[in-house]
Structures are given as structure tokens and as C-alpha cells.
Automatic annotation (TrEMBL):
In the N-terminal section; belongs to the enoyl-CoA hydratase/isomerase family. Belongs to the enoyl-CoA hydratase/isomerase family. The lineage of its organism: Bacteria, Bacillati, Actinomycetota, Nitriliruptoria, Egibacterales. Residues 199-279 form the 3-hydroxyacyl-CoA dehydrogenase C-terminal domain. Residues 18-196 form the 3-hydroxyacyl-CoA dehydrogenase NAD binding domain. This is enoyl-CoA hydratase. It comes from the Bacteria.
Amino acid sequence: VRRQPGKPDVQPRGVTQAAIVGAGLMGAQIGGLLLQRLEVPLVMKDLDQDVLDQARQTIEGDLDKRVQRGRLSAGKARFLKSNVTYSLDDADVAGSDLVVEAVAEVMDVKKKVFADLERVLDEGAVLASNTSTLSISEMASDLTHPERVVGLHFFNPVQVMPLVEIIRGESTSDEALSTAFEIAKRTRKSAVLCGDAPGFVVNRVLFRFMGACARAPRTGTPFTEVDDAIKALGLPMGPFELIGLVGLEVNAHVARVMHEAFPDRFDLDPNFQELAQTGLPGIYDWSRGRVPYDEVVERWQVD
Ligand code: 3HC
């Protein structure tokens, strides 16, 4: 692991403070990773206090787990916890050399977040986006310094998955790119440099597979058996189990973006969209394990 092909021969930006904007599922996990690996002050910023409280639980819970397992001293865990500021205010992000956004996957929202951050950040601070599918070039296009924007796409669960996709937009500078590679190295991830195309590499491949799996129940194979078959093939999770892990909304969103980009290659499976809208806990409800087939068969209609 720790591949670095494509890293420019340019000094990365030194990071003395990092920030996460959007402290939800991915933001909290990425924050926890940066906190433990970069060992610099971390600012977790969100618009919603409840989301910040949940992020604190995720970050501190992971540190506590490491202490219990003897992987971290109690003193170090205390220090790391005290190194995080949870904030509702962009002003607290000022002074960060690296900001990773993990807000909603809506282009206009991402653009506004970056525009607001540009007002408070130093000129050379790097803005990284954890987007799954959206264009890095477009996200940067309205900024005074679009060269500071780079894609840094982590995978769920962030602490465990060894890959990070690094995306170079049209304007991305060598320094921003080099900083992204440096973050990958210090967080002990394998970095793959990707073109700025919908779904980059992983989601472009993964969602062809997910779409094919989504159609399988329609041909009469219960989805639980699709999962079992795929797991027996050696993958760590079945596709429906994976939907439960990444979340119904994220799954539906990626499927929609890929369909819009390549309608001839990616079906817009109506079940993905409907499941996300109805707020059904999912085929896998993590608090209960597998949801009985009968409970969802009406939504996942077998032709
Ligand atoms: N959050 C945090 N840590 C988790 C976790 C979670 N949801 N699930 C498991 N872990 C940790 C465990 O604590 C354990 O850590 P430890 O070694 O320190 O004890 C370690 O992972 C291994 O866990 P388990 O032994 O319990 O379970 P498995 O061996 O079955 O592995 C898994 C769990 C790593 C989640 C594995 O099933 C897997 O790799 N699944 C595929 C995940 C995947 O493909 N993710 C990518 C999703 S796509 C994406 O994120 C992109 C987006 O843009 C859509």
C-alpha cells in the first residue's frame, strides 16, 4: 500500500491546523483519521449542533476503543480529544492549512461552502473535497483561487478502507495535489490519482456492479442470496449490505449522478431512489441485522 504514483515533485503545504466542514457520517470519520495521524489541532465545523455532538461521539468513541484495546494511552487520547474544536462558525476554521469538505453532495452547496471558506482562509490554504462523484473543476470554478481545490475521496469505513482517490481538477495546483498525496501518506492510505470524471475510478466501476446486483432480485433471485453469492466469491460484503453501510441516500445519489452522466451505461434503478425517499431503514438495518425479506419484497418487486 501507500502508492504515490502521480505525486508532483513539489513541496506540499505544511499543515499546522486542519478542518472538516460537514461533520456527518464521512466528515466525522475523516476528522477522526486526521486527528490521529496528523496530530495537529482539528476544527470540526457544521451548521447543526446535533451533527457536531454526534461527530464528537464518533471521534471520542473511536479513541476510547483504542485505549481499551491497548493501542493508545489514556493520556494521548485525552490530548487528542482536547485538540478538537467543534464549531458552528466558519471563523473558527480560519488558520487551517487544509480543509476537507464533506457536506451534502449538491454542487451549489459545495460551491457556497468553498466561497465562504475562501473569505476566512489564507491564500495558500488547500480546499479538499470528499465528493463521491461531482466535478472538482466545476466546484472550484467561481473561486478567486481555484488552484487550491483538490479531490480527496475517502471510503467508508474511513479508518479501515486503505484507499483514497485524489482528483486533479482543471486548475488544481501542484502544491494542492502534493498536499493531498502527503495527507494520503500520513494517513497511511494508498493514493490513486484520478481524472475529474463522474464517479472517478471506484464509483464508476462499483455502480455498474451495484446496478447489476439491483436488477438480480427482479429475475427471481432474493437479494439475500445475491449477497451470499457475492460474498462466497470472496468480496467482504454483499452489494445490499454495502448499501446499508454507505447509506441509502448516498447510494441513490451516486446512482443518479452516474445515470445522468452516462444514461446508456447506468440504469436509474427506481428501487434505489424509492428506498432513499421513503426513509426505509434499508435492506440491512444495522440495529437489527438483516431485515426479513417479506418486509421489503413489496418495495423490491420481483417481476
Ligand atoms: N466503522 C468503523 N470501523 C469499522 C466499521 C465501521 N462501520 N466496520 C468495521 N470496522 C472496523 C472494526 O472495528 C475492525 O477494526 P479492528 O481491526 O481495529 O478491530 C475492522 O474494521 C474489521 O472489522 P470486522 O472484523 O468486524 O469486520 P470485517 O472483517 O467483516 O470488515 C469491513 C468490515 C471492513 C467493513 C468489510 O466488510 C469491508 O471491507 N466491506 C466493504 C466496504 C466497502 O467496500 N467500502 C467502500 C464503500 S463505497 C464508498 O465509501 C464510496 C462512496 O463514495 C459511495
